[in-house]
Amino acid sequence: MSDHDEFGAFLVGFIVGGLTGAVAALLLAPQSGEETRAVIREKSIELKDQAKVEADKALRQAETLAADAKEKVQDYSRKAVKQGEELLETAKSKAKSIAAKKEPPVEMDVSGEI
Prior knowledge:
Elements: H1 2-28, H2 33-101
């Protein structure tokens, strides 16, 4: 899990660094202001489209993971119910077995004598 977190941090740093470098290169390039604004506009549209594609991918993956989790929870629930029913039947059977082995209780009359 720690490796995953470190890789995520590295990836975010790499992307932010790349974007910062791209913006710096555009701003410091020997182009006219109009050309620079056009390039920035095109890149922003590309990044927006790419972000939408990645967001859609992430959404589909999240939906798949949620469906899998729901299925697993339902499976575990069914197993738990089945085990509970089996335990109940075992308990009933043992209770009947114990009751059959016991002698009937001794009845006492109202005077307290046997």
